[in-house]
Design goal:
Layout: H1 5-12, H2 23-35, H3 39-51, H4 57-69, H5 73-86, H6 91-102
Helix pairs in contact: 2-3, 3-4, 4-5, 5-6
Length: about 110
């Protein structure tokens, strides 16, 4: 999983709420779920972040990775393309997008 300075800055700007999980909690929980092989749980965490209106290349990249591991190539490609739009030229995102596109079967 990819983390960077942008994630830290992004997560520090998020207001803390006592009733709901913070974006940082969701992001870390999604990463933990991914590392544990709980890919659907990871997808839920990353999608929850996006539904709250917080987006970053790292969130879309990790979402794409979770979809990829579930064999959901169309969704993985969409997530990688959204990540690449936010971070043009990122080599990791570009690499994973190419891998996902290679797994698409033309009819």
């Amino acid at each position: 999983m990819r983390k960077g300075l942008m994630v830290l800055v992004f997560l520090m700007m998020v207001p803390v709420s006592s009733r709901t999980q913070t974006v940082e909690d969701l992001f870390n929980g999604g990463n933990d779920a991914y590392r544990s092989g709980k890919f659907q749980e990871a997808v839920s965490a990353f999608e929850s972040i996006i539904q709250q209106g917080f987006v970053s290349p790292e969130v879309f990249f990790n979402l794409g990775n979770a979809y990829y591991r579930q064999g959901m190539m169309a969704r993985a490609i969409l997530a990688y393309e959204r990540a690449l739009r936010l971070a043009p030229g990122d080599p990791d995102i570009g690499h994973n997008l190419r891998l996902a596109n290679l797994r698409i079967v033309d009819r």
